[in-house]
Specification:
This protein has 114 residues and is an all-beta fold. The chain is built from no helices and 10 strands. The strands form 2 sheets. The protein has a 6-stranded mixed sheet with strand order 2-10-9-4-5-6, with no helix packed on it. A 4-stranded antiparallel sheet has the order 1-3-8-7, with no helix packed on it.
């Protein structure tokens, strides 16, 4: 059974930082490209960062230079370090595979106050 469990969200002031974690089970983690996605109220879910392999990363233009995605294959976990947060980063953040989505987890809420 596939499980994606996100954690680390919270309320932070603009300019602050958060580190999100996503622990996975039920997939061969090391063989899967992973991504962090977010969905704000009234908006579609969007991909913000992806990590096909340990040394390969891609970012949406809106987060480039502020967010860093990483993975620990030994822990089956993907991380998202978010710095210089802006109110427009407020959303529910999810992780999932980059291709052939697995069932979505509950996500973790990030709220950035101005």
């Amino acid at each position: 059974q596939v499980q994606l469990v996100e954690s680390g969200g919270g309320l932070v002031q603009a300019g602050g930082s958060l580190r999100l974690s996503c622990r996975t089970s039920g997939i061969i983690f090391s063989l899967n490209a992973m991504g962090w996605y977010r969905q704000a109220p009234g908006k579609q879910r969007e991909l913000v960062a992806s990590i096909p392999g340990v040394d390969s990363t891609k970012y949406a233009d809106s987060v480039k230079g502020r967010f860093t995605i990483s993975r620990d294959n030994a822990k089956n976990t993907v991380y998202l370090q978010m710095n210089s947060l802006k109110p427009e980063d407020s959303a529910i953040y999810y992780c999932n595979t980059l291709y052939n989505y697995r069932p979505w987890g509950q996500g973790t809420q990030v709220t950035v106050s101005s």
